[in-house]
UniProtKB/TrEMBL annotation:
GO terms for molecular function: DNA binding; DNA-binding transcription factor activity. It comes from Mycobacterium paraseoulense. Pfam families: HTH_1, LysR_substrate. Keywords: Activator, DNA-binding, Transcription, Transcription regulation. This is Probable hydrogen peroxide-inducible genes activator.
Amino acid sequence: MDALRSGRVELRHLRAFEAVARLKSFTQAAAELRITQPALSRTIRQLEDALGVTLVDRTSRHVGTTRAGRTFLDHVERVLAELERAFGAVRRQASIGLGFSWLLPDPWAQDTVARFERATGTTVKLVRTDDALSAVQQGRVDVAVVRGRVTSTAVRVVHLFDETRVAVCSVHSPLATRSELAWAEVPRWPLVVNTASGTTGPWSWPAGEGPKTIVETANFDEWLESVAADRGIGVIPDVAVRRNIHPGVRFVALRGAPRSPVSLAFLPRARNAVLRRFVEAALESVQASAETV
């Protein structure tokens, strides 16, 4: 209060006054600003006390501005417009790093990036990395798309949706002519596993029930080339079916396979408003997609 008595005016006071003057309603202005009506009334009174004039005419049935209020409003509108231009210029230079280890889910990823960039003016930088979770923990990206169960307590995880799994085999594999494979049959074949970011491995079955032969690879490219070379079969989210990932592999529908979770991971200590808005945009895209199904 001492700061206000000495004439200090904050941005929230200007926004509150502009909203009341433009909408001619404390009720509508409070709703737009997402504050209570009593809080808005206090803010306007603080502004008037700081300036030493009455800005809002509360005597009539409809809220209006006084002569001083109308003069002040002209200046406030110009100030707020200049601030918005300044904010926009800074946002266009800002960016957020989104890490991913291989194919981004579609159309969720494209919808989220477009929705976020339109709303904030901030650019999303896509960062391909073999281990997206480590990239978050090391601060190389702000947020990452991760698949499968995340057990690390070093990151915060926000679940988005679950993906259907399909089997992948070489064009030379006996499975290449099959139209369907049961999940229970998968352990009968050598399984190629991406140890860095794969969603399917020995951990996907109860102890002793998984594949007897495991072919380990360190990233998606090694995994894909190993499957194409007929060193074993792989299991992958069905986004790959829509992407023509390799001419040497075939996809086989999996019956009874558990779905694979897709989540966003970021450091829990992050208090970045831009990151929070990205997570909101991601969840909004999930909701929009669900409503169109």
